[in-house]
UniProtKB/TrEMBL annotation:
Residue ranges, compositional bias (Low complexity): 13-24
Transmembrane segments: 61-84, 107-125, 137-156, 162-181
Key word Hydrolase present: no
Keywords from the UniProt entry: Membrane, Transmembrane, Transmembrane helix
Organism: Streptomyces camelliae
Keyword Cytoplasm: no
Name assigned to this protein: Integral membrane protein
Disordered: region residues: 1-24
């Protein structure tokens, strides 16, 4: 059998008329290997990210909100330290019952700790554009520690810190946070 033989089952049909014989089927591309998928710029990650995802940006904003709360906390602790010191030196000044049990040094220690927390949050928030996975892990630890520490003095300000810490940890620890901090930088 040759290729031009009309009885050849492997060759193209010869001279069939439309509507006669077997129904016409759409032609498929030639034989061989299937077409390869389109080539991506970065392997497995899709196109490089240029804009920060919304929840990662929200985590950065929440860090700046914590910085604002810490500024207020530093001012309150420092003022309380000064007032307690004056009340200890002068017996005519009466202290509120909530401050009578504290020493001035304790209030100054709280002010220093609040200042350290403020600096840590500010450094994290300012490095979100350029930081890598290490910054992501550090921000995750910051959010978790903020939430855990906020539970102990369960106050009105503690509730805000609890919620903000949980949200920061969730936003940074999610898939968008992972993609943002692991993105390729050229």
């Amino acid at each position: 059998m040759s290729f031009g033989d009309p009885n050849n089952p492997y060759g193209p049909p010869q001279g069939q008329q439309q509507g006669y014989g077997y129904p016409q089927q759409p032609q498929q591309p030639g034989y061989g290997y299937p077409a390869a998928p389109p080539v991506q710029q970065s392997y497995g990650m899709g196109a490089p990210m240029t804009a920060m995802p919304g929840n990662v940006s929200a985590a950065r904003v929440l860090l700046w909100v914590i910085v604002g709360f810490q500024v207020i906390g530093v001012a309150i602790f420092a003022y309380a330290g000064v007032v307690i010191k004056k009340a200890k030196d002068d017996s005519s000044i009466s202290l509120p019952s909530t401050l009578r049990d504290y020493q001035p040094g304790e209030m100054w220690a709280f002010a220093v700790l609040a200042l350290a927390w403020l600096v840590w949050a500010a450094v994290l928030a300012s490095r979100f554009n350029t930081g890598g996975n290490g910054l992501r892990v550090t921000a995750l630890v910051f959010g978790i520690l903020t939430a855990v520490i906020a539970v102990f003095p369960f106050t009105f300000a503690g509730i805000f810190h609890l919620v903000l810490g949980i949200l920061i940890a969730c936003f940074v620890g999610g898939s968008n946070g992972k993609a943002w901090f692991n993105r390729p930088r050229y």
